Amino acid sequence: MVSTHTLDVPGAHLYYEVRGSGPVLVLTGAPMGATHFAPLADVLADEYTVVTNDPRGISGSTLDDPAQDSTPELRADDIAAILDAIGADSAHVFGSSGGAVTGLALVARHPARVRTLVAHEPPVLALLPDAAEQRAEMDDIVETFHRDGPGPAFARFMAVSGMDTGDDEGAPTPPSEEPSAQDMADAARFLGHELRGTAGYVPDTDALTAAPSRVVIGIGVTSGGLITYRTSTELAARLGVHPAEFPGGHGGFVEAPGEFAETLRKVLAG
Question: What is the pTM assigned to this prediction?
Fold first, then answer.
């Protein structure tokens, strides 16, 4: 059984879902929302109280000011507010892609709220040796969006990230020939107000290593050609940890939720 909720926070109205029972486990993405995590959440609900959410400005989580940019810090505070709403002092957190960056900010800002963070392929481009070049690429994607629209911008995003080979699923989905109004709104939100803040986030490695939270960096076994493989291995090295391998690629939890859930259970068990 899935219960749906809306939580009012400063500047936003957050949509989230709760299913299952047991220790609290948050599954979060950015820009991916609750719908993308539902199959994984269903598998895990026999062991955990699973919380999924739409990030602020995406799908069911609406904003008072549609022009507000989304930052990892804002999204981290949103997760903390959801934990307050369900009466959870702390939780395990699985964050994918931009949601992994949200998780890093959550540990840095609210270290006592996270038991284990599994940050799956966080696109922390600022850590790379060619960070300036990568930042310029992100700027070009955003400029392409404002000039030419979401279709060309997503194509550029997929090429820059290494996801345009057809080998990886579960990445942010470019608009189809007949996208829904919500698809278009979410694409515009990601490209115009979320991409820069997420890709430009600089993890506080001192705070991450000092926090009581256990931090695990996850990488898909087929993600070797992606830029998130580079960012994940770099962050793991800076934290002095070995990356944990997960089934599939960047969106492995979408490709094979059952297999992915088994690996996640093992990682959380430590």
Answer: 0.94
What is the mean pLDDT of the segment spanning 236-245? 97
Region 177-191 average pLDDT:
86
pLDDT at 179: 76
For residue 32, what are the CA distances in angstroms to 54, 206, 207, 265? 7, 28, 26, 21
- pLDDT, tens digit (0-9, with 9 covering 90-100), for 195-204: 999 999 999 9
Q: In the chain, what percentage of residues exceed pLDDT 70?
A: 95
Which CATH topology does 2-127+201-269 take?
A: Rossmann fold (3.40.50)
Segments making up each domain of the chain, as ranges: 2-127+201-269
